[in-house]
From TrEMBL:
<feature type="domain" description="EF-hand">
    <location>
        <begin position="63"/>
        <end position="98"/>
    </location>
</feature>
<dbReference type="GO" id="GO:0005509">
    <property type="term" value="F:calcium ion binding"/>
</dbReference>
<dbReference type="InterPro" id="IPR002048">
    <property type="entry name" value="EF_hand_dom"/>
</dbReference>
<dbReference type="Pfam" id="PF24548">
    <property type="entry name" value="EF_EFCAB10_C"/>
</dbReference>
<dbReference type="InterPro" id="IPR011992">
    <property type="entry name" value="EF-hand-dom_pair"/>
</dbReference>
<dbReference type="InterPro" id="IPR039879">
    <property type="entry name" value="EFC10"/>
</dbReference>
<dbReference type="InterPro" id="IPR056587">
    <property type="entry name" value="EF_EFCAB10_C"/>
</dbReference>
<protein>
    <submittedName>
        <fullName>EFCAB10 isoform 2</fullName>
    </submittedName>
</protein>
<dbReference type="InterPro" id="IPR049760">
    <property type="entry name" value="DD_EFCAB10"/>
</dbReference>
């Protein structure tokens, strides 16, 4: 009984402070840039996040529109202008913009580049 209570408290703590999203973002940035000194890079990234939070200045994310388009085009290898919902969800996870337990609803429509860019940008702003 005590274990489940501690697990619940831990889960609530992680959710309250958005730790899963933060770790996912840090991991994605690390894999995207692959710096020579990963520990120093992570420390620098956390410091920039802290400064952005304290000053209210928006933090510059590592994905710009050209990166989003390039990612979409890699998934749309046939050049149809759409990707599947599964590809879309995996891309959001890879970017650290969607947690494993987030329940995204597949409406049955293919995801266009505009929809993909809109969703990635919206989620980056939320972080």
């Amino acid at each position: 009984m005590e274990t489940s209570s501690r697990e619940l408290q831990a889960a609530e703590y992680l959710e309250k402070h958005q730790i899963k999203e933060l770790v996912s973002y840090l991991t994605s940035a690390l894999l995207f840039f692959r710096p020579e000194k990963p520990k120093e890079y992570l420390i620098s990234l956390l410091e920039r996040l802290r400064i952005a939070k304290v000053t209210g200045v928006a933090f510059p994310f590592f994905m710009d529109n050209s990166n989003i388009v390039a990612m979409f085009e890699m998934m749309d290898s046939s050049g149809r202008g759409t990707i599947s919902f599964v590809q879309y969800k995996e891309a959001l996870k890879t970017l650290g913009l969607c947690t494993e337990d987030e329940d995204l609803q597949d409406d049955g429509h293919k995801i266009t580049l505009d929809k993909f860019k809109e969703e990635v940008n919206k989620r980056m702003k939320e972080i």
